[in-house]
Amino acid sequence: MVAYFFGSFLNHNLFLAIHELSHNLAFSTPVYNRWLGIFANLPIGVPMSVTFQKYHLEHHRFQGVDGIDMDIPSLTEAHLVTNVVSKSIWVILQLFFYALRPLFLKPKPPGIWEFVNLIIQLGLDAATVYFWGWKSFAYLILSTFVGGGMHPMAGHFISEHYVFNTDQETYSYYGPLNLMTWSVGYHNEHHDFPRIPGNKLHKVKEIAPEYYEGLDSYKSWSQVIYIFQWQCPEHGQVKVNFDGAFHSDTLMGALAIVTR
């Protein structure tokens, strides 16, 4: 209970802080952002900061490109996630899918920074077990796991990449949880201007409302999860080939890939 209602919010906040740092938004010197990302990674329990940056920046450069963009569900996932049961399982385990997807579909050899991230993280994990016991370590891991699953904070994973309206490929969220998530809900604004830090993304919408106010958006990530699980709009999954051509798979309730 404590992990779900307390630790999950903190750990997911750190995950999204790492997202900010992956864009080098804390310091002008990239290596400082990398070190801070490794530090923010520590309570999460699993080394992911350096690897996340490597794949996430490709998500921005090649969004929707099949075989490159690993931030979004694969066609295999779309074929399997087609009913309430499979959707529920996918939502609960979506952190595992998110973490393992690139390892299976686009593995990259680890560099020196991955090993630095790994060694520091394992050192902290070992120290946690040694000084405070396995229960303390399990609390950190559980907080990370539940915070990325059937949890309001994790609704942004779905709201960003699930096409509910075939005329719009990605969506923003303008609700209170932006205060705890570095304004990651401003998703359209973030992809238009990835070098603007989260705490200033609202100004993008204020300065250029004509580009955003006419778009569909959300005020509840919990509602997004509910709609994804229980309503089954027949929307397709859209990807982009290297030649720029589009192909789609129409699946009942499939995860749609944004091509913005």
Characteristic terms for this protein:
two-stranded parallel sheet, disordered C terminus, 260 residues, two-stranded antiparallel ribbon, 53% helix, mainly alpha
Care to describe what's here?
Keywords: Oxidoreductase. Residues 3-216 form the Fatty acid desaturase domain. The chain is mostly helical and 260 residues long. It has one domain. The chain is 53% helix and 5% strand. The protein has twelve helices and four strands; from the N terminus they run H-H-H-H-H-H-H-H-H-E-H-H-E-H-E-E. The chain has helices at 2-22, 30-41, 49-61, 75-80, 84-92, 94-105, 112-132, 134-147, 155-161, 187-192, 201-207, 221-230, and strands spanning 172-173, 217-218, 236-240, 246-250. The chain has a two-stranded parallel sheet with strand order 1-2. A hairpin with a 5-residue loop joins strand 3 (236-240) and strand 4. Helix 1 (2-22) crosses helix 3 (49-61), helix 5 runs antiparallel to helix 12 and helix 9 (155-161) packs across helix 12. It is globular and about 55 Å long. The protein starts with a helix and ends in a 10-residue tail after the last strand. Mean pLDDT is 88; it is low at 234-238 and 241-260.
What gap, in angstroms, lies between the N and C termini?
Answer: 38 Å
Structural class: mainly alpha
Quote the average pLDDT: 88
Total count of strands: 4
* Number of helices in the DSSP assignment: 12
- The quaternary structure here is single chain
- Alpha-carbon Rg, integer: 18 Å
Strand content: 5-15%
How much helix, percentage-wise, in residues?
40-55%
Largest sheet: 2 strands, parallel
Strand order of the largest sheet: 1-2
Q: In total, how many domains does the architecture comprise?
A: 1
- Give the overall shape: globular
In the predicted model, the low-confidence regions spanning at least 5 consecutive residues are 234-238, 241-260
How are helices and strands ordered from N to C?
Answer: HHHHHHHHHEHHEHEE
Keywords: Oxidoreductase
GO biological process, one term: ceramide biosynthetic process
Domain Fatty acid desaturase: 3-216
Protein name: Fatty acid desaturase domain-containing protein
